[in-house]
UniProtKB/TrEMBL annotation:
The keyword Ubl conjugation does not apply. Pfam families: Sigma70_r2 (PF04542), Sigma70_r4_2 (PF08281). This is RNA polymerase sigma factor. It comes from the Bacteria.
């Protein structure tokens, strides 16, 4: 028999709710979903404009949360952990879509390696032309780290988990990316 918390689930913090979800508490899951799904939906929409794909990723993220709540580490934030799940799901979905489109691209004469990612296209449309050019000049490894820590607002630890890199590598790449962007902007602006 499940033991109910002393306080109603609406008064518990997200981390405690995840722990209750790990024990199969449906009310805790519903409360966590109600709290986190609006901001998670917004963050996913910033990375992808395909509403169907975003809805699928959102649903898959909460299914994963339900199934893997027991693996949540108490030393992290529940929101960061959930965003890591969702970001990975989105990346996987975008890669799957790209793989499915490769035959179409080959028939049209395009090569996948020459095409920018959907994330890069969306981001460069929103950036100042000088910043967009500097962004495009970054290597994919530097862009993905900068995207995670600056655009998505992940901590170094969360970015490390998301990207499968050591924290030191994330820090180093983020610093290198910022320097390269600064240098690109300086050169672009004519002050170099």
């Amino acid at each position: 028999m499940r033991r109910r918390p002393a306080r109603p689930v609406g008064e518990l913090d997200d981390e405690r709710l995840v722990k209750l979800v790990a024990h199969g508490d449906r009310a805790a899951f519903e409360e966590l979903y109600a709290r986190t799904s609006p901001w998670l939906l917004l963050r996913l929409r910033r990375r992808c404009s395909d509403e169907d794909l975003v809805a699928e990723v959102l649903q898959d993220s909460y299914v994963s949360l339900w199934r893997s709540a027991g693996s949540f580490s108490a030393d992290g934030s529940a929101a960061g952990w959930l965003w890591t799940i969702a970001a990975r799901k989105l990346i996987d979905a975008m890669r799957a879509r790209a793989r499915a489109q490769r035959p179409e691209l080959a028939a049209a004469g395009s090569t996948p390696s020459a095409m920018p990612s959907a994330e890069d296209e969306a981001l460069t449309r929103e950036l100042d032309p000088g910043l967009a050019a500097a962004w495009a000049g970054l290597s994919p490894q530097l862009r993905e780290v900068l995207q995670a820590v600056v655009v998505d607002g992940l901590t170094t630890r969360e970015a490390s988990t998301l990207l499968g890199l050591p924290e030191g590598t994330v820090k180093t790449r983020a610093r290198r990316a910022r320097i390269a962007l600064r240098d690109g902007l300086t050169t672009e602006g004519g002050t170099a």
